[in-house]
Amino acid sequence: MIRYPRSIRGRSTVATSLLALAILAVLGITGCLAIRYALGEHVYVQAEHEAGEWTTVARTTPPGALRDPLPVFAEINLVQIVDSHGAVLAASPDAHGLPALSQVRPAPDDPVQRLSDGRHMVVAIRSGPTPDAPIVLAGLAVPMLLRGHHLELLLGALALLLTACAGAITWVAIGRALRPVEAVRAHMAQITLNDLSRRMPIPPGEDEIADLVRTANHTLARLDEAVAQQRRFAATTSHELRNPIAGLRAQLEDALEHPEDTDARQTLRTALNTTDRLDAIIGDLLAQARLRADSPHELVNLNELIAQETNRTNATHTHDDTGGHDGSRPGVPVRFRADGDVWVCGSSIQLIRALANLVGNARRHAATGVDITLTATGGQAVIAVTDDGPGIAPGDRQRVFERFTRLDDGRRLDSGGSGLGLAITRDIAAGHRGTLTLEDSPTGARFVLRIPQLDPHDDGADHDPDLARTTEEART
Q: Are 55 and 66 in contact (CB under 8 A)?
């Protein structure tokens, strides 16, 4: 069973060597045949010409009167005139004393024949049609390179040498090309979950390996930030959960140890409130974790979505004297105004959750009502939720978006809140390629959610290829 090299360098070298050997083998065979044919054709043509010149002499001159040795001035140095019995009548100086170069006698109807015995290349021409007409033999000794398989062996050795050179060049070239990859592998092996701050050195140039290293460094940076966020989130979550659990435990232990000094009903009511707070925190944590998972995106008409949620909110809180589960107060109306239909590509469930968080927060702090406006500006859908409450101080406008952050006014109005609503809403905005900000308002607080607008009849490819791809997926 053939085992191929595991490394790219080895496989590339073997592939290049085999390809070079195949090409050189074809070239060698073709070259060998071409050399033998070209050389043979050249020798036979010259020999035929030389023999043809001596044919007349052999036909018209009596055997005893032939000049011996025959004067030869061409490159064909072997010339013999042979009688009908195969005896040499006359020969050139180089052929003098040699036996007849060939015993073949051409027939009268085919007076010219080309012959080769492996040592000589000869042309035999019959000087006349009579049976005793002399035969003229002219030719050359076969060069040593063309005897046997010397030419094939030479070309084969040359092909193997060139194949080895091609393999060596490929081995060195691939090794140099993969040297940065080995450096990247060594640095990647040193990166652990506890030390994601390391970055790989970017090799010089603008080739594919340099682009790969840059992309890997960007990925490591995002991974480092994500891990840091998760650690901060885990630390904050454990702290926020530990406090109510510790308080609940202390209350229950005190009730067990001192039942005579404890109001059982009040203790149970406090424990229930604490449980509600824990349930709210865990629910919001699960909601935030689900934002990281893929959710189906679709074409969403914000005008219809907000109108339906506004009507549902007003109907629910009109018949609920205790307020909503989000801590909002009963009897606070929500008014909605839109300039027209505004379309976006997103998750209806997540957008409803974001709107519910903003409206619930506004109703908790509103004095008389909450206003929602929907406009389209600069290619973005702009949802503004404004209340007429006390507002938020400028120094706290960034803090309210942090996880588990609850201002004093919020704690007073909703003691069971988790402090994750606005953080979840900002994550939803980011997941829709948008933003959530807190802007100036004459009265109360004004939260503005911006999401890229989408024309339902335009795929937006000229402006944002990623958004166009997401839109096409939503349509299908």
A: no
Residue at token pair 């232990």 = 253
| Domain finish residue from 92, 126, 151 | 151
- The better pLDDT of the pair 231, 375 is held by 375
Q: Which long-range contacts (CB under 8 A, 24 or more apart) does 17-26 make?
A: 17/163, 17/164, 17/166, 17/167, 17/170, 20/162, 20/163, 20/166, 20/167, 21/159, 21/160, 21/163, 24/158, 24/159, 24/162, 24/163, 25/159
Q: Dihedral sign, CA of 400, 404, 408, 410?
A: positive
Cis, bond preceding 93 (omega within 30 deg of 0): no
Q: Are residues 462 and 406 located together in one domain of the fold? A: yes
Total number of domains in the chain: 3
Condensed to tens digits (0 to 9), the pLDDT of residues 77-129 reads 899 898 888 888 888 888 888 888 888 889 888 899 998 887 888 999 998 88
Question: How far is 411 from 231, CA to CA, in rounded Å?
Answer: 26
User: What is the C-alpha separation between 18 and 7, in angstroms, rounded?
Assistant: 17
**Angular region, 379: left φ>0, alpha ψ -120 to 50, beta rest:** left
Instruction: Say how far apart CA 392 and CA 409 lie, in whole Å.
Output: 9
- 345 and 421 in a single domain? The answer is yes
- Return the C-alpha torsion angle 63, 68, 71, 72, nearest 10: 80
- Note whether 289 and 310 are same-domain residues: no
Identify the DSSP state of 319: S
Q: Does 282 lie in the same domain as 350? A: no
Contact 336, 300 (CB under 8 A): no
Give 51-78 pLDDT, tens digit per residue.
888 888 888 888 778 887 888 877 888 9
129/204 same-domain check = no
List pLDDT tens digits, range 340-361.
889 998 888 888 888 988 898 8
Please give the helix or strand (H or E) that residue 80 lies within, else none.
strand 78-82
Same-domain check for residues 196 and 345: no
Q: In this structure, are 409 and 454 located in the same domain?
A: yes
Phi then psi dihedrals of residue 338, to 5 deg? -135, 150
CATH of the domain at 341: 3.30.565.10
Q: Which residues contact 472 (CB under 8 A, 6 or more apart)?
A: 459
Structural domain contains residue 335: yes
Q: Which residues contact 344 (CB under 8 A, 6 or more apart)?
A: 299, 300, 302, 351, 381, 432, 451, 452, 453, 454
Q: Which domain holds residue 242?
A: 192-293
